[in-house]
Design goal:
- By secondary structure, the protein is an alpha/beta fold.
- It has 2 domains: 201 residues, 5'-nuclease (Rossmann fold), CATH 3.40.50.1010; 66 residues, 5' to 3' exonuclease, C-terminal subdomain (DNA polymerase, domain 1, Orthogonal Bundle), CATH 1.10.150.20.
- Helix content is 48%, strand content 8%.
- The protein is built from 14 helices and 7 strands.
- The chain has a 7-stranded mixed β-sheet, with helices on both faces.
Length: 332
């Protein structure tokens, strides 16, 4: 879900060619969820192998990733670690929403088939077998995976701050709150339905004349994965309040905001965004795909078409060729 700050952002549309030669840290959990949600049968049933195991995420990883890497993009997949205690309530709410969506999906498949796909998407879940299968395939593809101690977006943002990657790819905006200099949305989404967007933190700060710390306070006021926010306060109102009062402490001292529910743990939430738990001693290594293991894993274990997998591997082989790098000023 992430923080509800989208209305004050101004994403810039870019083409895939701009990303040639760039290293992108992918928020693995959100990307896998995206694959599980969109790669389904017309009635909403996920792709499965002959043993009944879901393979939608594996399909997304091999085919969409290969297409993107053929453009010269290098990937690092960053996986979530242990969630913070403040996120437990949000995770519980998500679980309840998935269960409700699953019930509606089962009903819609019989009574309202035109609505079945929508409910099926909302029932998607990234569980342990999904993550383990994804890590196995990525290892065979030679794409590095990094296990974050806590939030994957925080780890990806830290890597971007260090300059080890140039972008963070995610669907929500938390990577900006964690300090990523630039993030990309819709990178792994179907190209026909979505536009590739980039958002730069520095430009956002300059446009609204705010600091990253103030952006975090804005996110806390409207709600995040770690707190519900104050009911009735949208992001534009939150922006005005923080620009006027500078931070939540002064806002509470100069108004009755402190009496309202939703930001009781604001100091803890702020600390999660500004001082996240990250792995500072990681190592990134890319390798050539192990074609034999990829085919064994996908074709023999999960019933993928060997012809399609071979074509995807050919794309990956072409991705190893040098591609011209573009300066950041050419697209910002």
């Amino acid at each position: 879900m992430g923080s509800k700050i989208g209305e004050i952002l101004e994403p810039k549309e870019i083409s895939l060619d701009v990303l040639s030669g760039k290293i992108v840290a992918v928020d693995a959990s959100i990307t896998l969820y995206q694959f599980l949600s969109t790669i389904r049968q017309p009635d909403g049933t996920p792709l499965k192998d002959s043993s009944g195991r879901t393979t939608s995420h594996l399909s997304g990883l091999i085919y969409r990733t290969a297409t993107l890497m053929e453009k010269g993009i290098k990937f690092v997949f960053v996986f979530d670690g242990k969630p913070t205690e403040l996120k437990a309530k949000e995770l519980k709410n998500r679980s309840e929403r998935r269960a409700q969506a699953m019930r509606k999906w089962e009903e819609a498949r019989v009574l309202f088939p035109e609505e079945a796909f929508k409910y099926a998407q909302a029932s998607s879940k990234v569980d342990k077998p999904i993550v383990e299968g994804a890590k196995t395939l990525l290892a065979y593809l030679g794409i590095p995976c990094l296990q974050a101690p806590s939030e994957g977006e925080a780890q990806a943002a830290y890597m971007a701050q260090k300059g080890d990657v140039e972008f963070v790819s995610s669907q929500d905006y938390d990577s900006l709150l964690f300090g990523a200099p630039a993030m990309i949305r819709n990178l792994t989404a179907p190209r026909k339905k979505t536009k590739l967007e980039v958002i730069e933190l520095k430009r956002l700060e300059e446009k609204h004349e705010i600091t990253r710390e103030q952006l975090v306070d804005i996110a806390i006021l409207v709600g995040s994965d770690f707190n519900p926010g104050i009911k009735g306060i949208g992001v534009k109102t939150a922006l005005k309040l923080i620009k006027k009062h500078h931070d939540i402490e002064k806002l509470m001292a100069q108004s009755d905001i402190g009496k309202k529910k939703g930001i009781e743990d604001y100091a803890l939430v702020r600390d999660i965004f500004l001082h996240p738990d990250v792995n500072r001693s990681y190592e990134l290594k890319w390798a050539n795909p192990d074609e034999g293991k990829v085919k064994e894993f996908l074709c023999e274990e999960h019933d993928f078409s060997e012809e399609r997998v071979s074509k995807a591997l050919e794309k990956l082989s072409r991705s190893k060729h040098d591609v011209p790098q573009q300066k950041i000023g050419q697209w910002l």
